[in-house]
Amino acid sequence: xxxxxxxxxxxxxxxxxxxxxKSPVTMRRxRSPVTMRRxKSPVTxxRRxRSPxxxxxxxxxxxxxxxxxPLVDREKTCPLLLRVFxxxxxxxxxxxxxxxRVPSNELQIxxxxxxxxxxxxxxxxxxxxxxxxxxxxFSFSTVYPDMRRGGYRLKELGxxxxxxxxxxxxxxxxxxxxxxxDFVDVAVIPRSRNRPY
Length: 197
Description:
Elements: H1 6-11, H2 14-21, H3 24-30, H4 33-39, H5 42-49, H6 52-62, E1 80-88, E2 106-111, H7 117-127, E3 137-145, E4 152-161, E5 183-189
Parallel strand pairs: 1-5
Antiparallel strand pairs: 1-2, 3-4, 3-5
């Protein structure tokens, strides 16, 4: 060390070598969690990989209550009175339902909240022979009172197809937040006017 100049001694100083190679500031910059989130964001990757059809399905399924259906013992639980209104080709208009007046084609069914749309379709087919042909589509909507604006509003429950399994067959009244006292409106679409869904 005696033969080295002061500049060479400074460059070979063990203190400088440790500080330059093991600087905690440098390590934090290279392993910044912010940088990792930007490069490996799962949210961004998922959004880019989703198609418009997948986003529509996700938005539709987000309205469905994810809670498990209630365990109903039908032998011990009193059924509810479900007032069903069927119409060929289209749903009834909301203004056809008032406090003292409803459509004349009413069907009264005693069932439970765990009743599925396919079960409801079978009950309608039993009393209405015109809806029995295969390929007939049933579009279910709940009719509930609008507490803010008055009158009634319609909300879609799902669709079933006679003679064919569908994705809404196992949808229950409870899963779509049906309230006791609401109505169910059914648009019965014959096979000749039916479109695949």
